[in-house]
């Protein structure tokens, strides 16, 4: 598999070597396999545009086209992704000028990940209230005719939207499982909590983090046509030809006005192959899925995103220990602890390119209280590569499929998320896999390039709020499909 360094394994005993090779075989994805996965991905994207209930839901965002680059003004936004609540006040000054932002982060207490809808929204409303109080002078001027400040709400979960100002949560993903939200409109629930606390704010746009990233990146650089977020979860967004989204007509009837326009699609591609026809799932993946907050869902996400990579690796270590290949005869209760290994552990381990592998040895000692022998270190180091390489290669399938869907051979992708930015070798490995899938000539430059996305959930959300209000003639936004 591209990107691997099997030479690390030189000199390890034969029994260890054969176990590593067995694991490697189950993690390897050949070029033909990558192509099959990408082809199936493309078909699934199309299916999601034509019908409900497809693995990849291809959610409508009601963001109708790219920004003009002239969007200006100050907008509040709330970014809710599951770990923190970030409240921002962004001053947009048009494409040519830098934006200015004031922001505060509030940690979402762990117990609120599985609380009730009421408690969750009260907490988020409280964060907004605190922000407005603290930055009172800056926020005051933003009130509309009804005395409220317009706010864009970035909610990084799959929702069904009938307009820019509503969204029914389809299902929680990642680590959240708050009761009473699935099947309900998150905008009305959050707005009710804001009203109850008398926070003078009106939600004018509901935005997914990927849609925010698409709009903010395109605002800065109009050549960016796809956005991708790969952090705790993974997802991507792009603009689709309205006429190709045939499922719209079955819900809303023909819309002549919109038919030659573009509609932003939040693909929710983390759900690719939930029906398990194509993904090369290993028994490690099956266990990670079973132990996750939402078994049976987001199968692709669980093989590539940050929340799960450490867990996959933990399952491998548990198996190796059970086979007596690492720390034989020693109890390792720490490995039973969910999430004891996170994606940054793997990334740090991958960054150790030394011969001695001292850093990875120290890492295991410090984080897992494991004293590895020189052979064990080599094996553990190599297995980290397997997990990271497979993730990057699978990730590339989604980008290749979207490029094909958009019928583009060259494209700039606005990429965001900790895995993308911080995970050692992730970007290079993805690009290499894209080259294999899309069959770029050997010496050619990369036809698809990744660029750091502008802050989608802050700046992107603000731009979407500006676009929404502009369409509504400023001031108050009436509930209406699209803008
Ligand atoms: C969510 C998406 C989100 C992605 C990245 C996934 O689990 O379903 O809505 O865009 O994570 O945050």
From TrEMBL:
Origin species: Aspergillus sclerotialis
MF-aspect GO terms: ATP binding; D-glucose binding; fructokinase activity; glucokinase activity; mannokinase activity
GO terms under cellular component: cytosol; mitochondrion
Residue ranges of domain Hexokinase N-terminal in the record: 20-219
Annotated family: Belongs to the hexokinase family.
Protein name: Phosphotransferase
GO-annotated biological processes: glucose metabolic process; glycolytic process; intracellular glucose homeostasis; mannose metabolic process
Classification lineage: Eukaryota, Fungi, Dikarya, Ascomycota, Pezizomycotina
Database matches in PANTHER family: HEXOKINASE, HEXOKINASE TYPE 1-RELATED
Catalytic activity: D-fructose + ATP = D-fructose 6-phosphate + ADP + H(+); a D-hexose + ATP = a D-hexose 6-phosphate + ADP + H(+)
Keywords, sorted A to Z: ATP-binding, Glycolysis, Kinase, Nucleotide-binding, Transferase
């Amino acid at each position: 598999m591209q990107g691997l360094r099997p030479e690390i394994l030189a000199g390890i005993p034969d029994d260890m070597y054969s176990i590593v090779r067995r694991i490697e075989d189950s993690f390897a994805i050949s070029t033909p396999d990558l192509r099959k996965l990408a082809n199936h991905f493309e078909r699934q994207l199309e299916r999601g545009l034509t019908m409900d209930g497809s693995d990849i839901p291809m959610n409508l965002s009601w963001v109708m086209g790219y920004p003009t680059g002239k969007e200006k003004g100050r907008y509040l936004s709330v970014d809710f992704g599951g770990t923190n609540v970030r409240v921002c006040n962004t001053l947009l000054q048009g494409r040519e000028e830098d934006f200015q932002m004031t922001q505060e982060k509030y940690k979402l207490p762990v117990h609120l990940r599985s609380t009730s809808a009421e408690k969750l929204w009260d907490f988020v409303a409280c964060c907004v209230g605190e922000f407005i109080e603290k930055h009172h002078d800056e926020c005051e001027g933003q009130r509309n005719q009804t005395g409220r400040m317009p706010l864009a709400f970035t909610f990084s979960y799959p929702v069904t939207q009938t307009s820019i100002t509503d969204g029914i949560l389809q299902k929680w993903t990642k680590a959240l499982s708050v009761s009473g939200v699935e099947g309900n409109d998150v905008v009305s629930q959050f707005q009710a909590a804001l009203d109850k606390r008398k926070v003078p704010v009106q939600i004018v746009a509901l935005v997914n983090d990927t849609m925010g990233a698409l709009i903010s990146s395109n605002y800065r650089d109009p050549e960016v046509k796809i956005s991708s977020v790969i952090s705790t979860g993974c997802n991507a967004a792009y603009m689709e030809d309205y006429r190709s989204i045939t499922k719209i007509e079955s819900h809303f009837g023909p819309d002549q006005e919109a038919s030659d326009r573009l509609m932003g699609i939040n693909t929710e591609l983390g759900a690719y192959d939930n029906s398990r026809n194509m993904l090369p799932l290993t028994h490690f993946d099956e266990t990670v899925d079973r132990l996750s907050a939402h078994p049976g869902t987001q199968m692709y996400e669980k093989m590539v995103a940050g929340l799960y990579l450490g867990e996959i690796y933990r399952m491998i270590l548990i198996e190796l220990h059970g086979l007596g290949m690492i720390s034989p005869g020693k109890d390792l209760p720490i490995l039973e602890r969910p999430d004891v290994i996170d994606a940054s552990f793997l990334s740090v381990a991958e960054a150790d390119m030394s011969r001695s592998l001292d850093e990875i040895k120290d890492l295991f000692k410090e984080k897992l209280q494991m004293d590895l022998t020189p052979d064990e270190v080599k094996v553990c180091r190599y297995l980290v590569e397997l997990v990271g390489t497979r993730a990057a290669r699978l990730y590339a399938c989604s980008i290749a499929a979207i490029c094909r869907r958009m019928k583009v051979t060259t494209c700039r992708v606005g990429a965001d998320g900790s895995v993308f930015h911080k995970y050692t070798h992730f970007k290079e490995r993805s690009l290499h896999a894209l080259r294999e899938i899309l069959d770029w000539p050997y010496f050619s430059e990369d036809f698809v390039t990744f660029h750091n996305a502008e802050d989608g959930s802050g700046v992107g959300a603000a731009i979407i709020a500006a676009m929404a209000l502009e369409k509504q003639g400023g001031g108050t936004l009436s509930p209406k499909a699209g803008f």
